[in-house]
Amino acid sequence: DTVRQSLQTNGITIDADWCDCFARNGIHVGVSLDGPAFLHDAHRRTRTGKPSHAAALRGIRWLQQRQIPFNVISVLTADALDHADALFDFFAEHGITEVGFNMEETEGGNSSSSLDRPELEGRYRAFLQRFWQRTLASPGQVHLREFDGITSLACSDQRLERTDMNHPFVIVNVDARGNVSSFDPELLGVELERFGCFAFGNVLSDSLEQIAASERFQQVQREMAAGVAACRSSCAYFGLCGGGAGSNKVFEHGRFDGSETQACRYRIQLVADVVLAGLEQQLGLSAAA
Fold first, then answer.
1. Which in 12, 33, 172, 177 has the greatest CB count within 10 A?
2. Per residue in 218-251, pLDDT tens?
3. What's the fold here for domain 6-156?
């Protein structure tokens, strides 16, 4: 088995030394960048309140100059939904070819989302349709993780049975103090009344076997497995997500054993509707249907 290291960063401190570190250790780099400055700087400021967009782009240029593979993750808020063209053009202009969209979610310290209103689903669908059109018009220029994932499953006639984020120890999350969690990274550092802290142990004192045997870990794993089973039995989109992320369920519903979440509606269901409709149109199947 292979252990792969991944690091998600705001990019503002990336320099030659960091690039040496990434290359030497084979670390996969993800940069948080929300598109053009007017979108990014609206929510991503330094601790002193200054805009961070220029510094993040400087870090990306270091990665590009040193040929360090990276991807960008952009958080979409309600403000971004009218700017599909601006986002696509920004990524293309700066040579950013691997992009993923994360919706602003209700999780951790973010107690609400600007996307909570049901009427925004129509705007989001239109946003996705426009971004899909731009990717078709400029093949290979910008790869969107969400489009590529569903296209790959559809074209290969495959389905997911699980996701890394609801299966124990596929992902091992470690913070700066050595605290260890599993499942999706958003759980690390969070404390909820029912479960306490989601740091199940510490790399300085606990083995993974000890962590897996703890009652708290077992409780989370059992409830998360029940949530996956609930999705499998009730949702037509299960094969595209494998039961979803436990963090979304617990932050939206207070439990891991629920099924549909708003995050899943945006991340999987609406994206799938747009991608499958687009593929049918490309293949000339829409009229026949």
1. 33
2. 999 999 999 999 999 999 999 998 998 988 899 8
3. TIM Barrel (3.20.20)
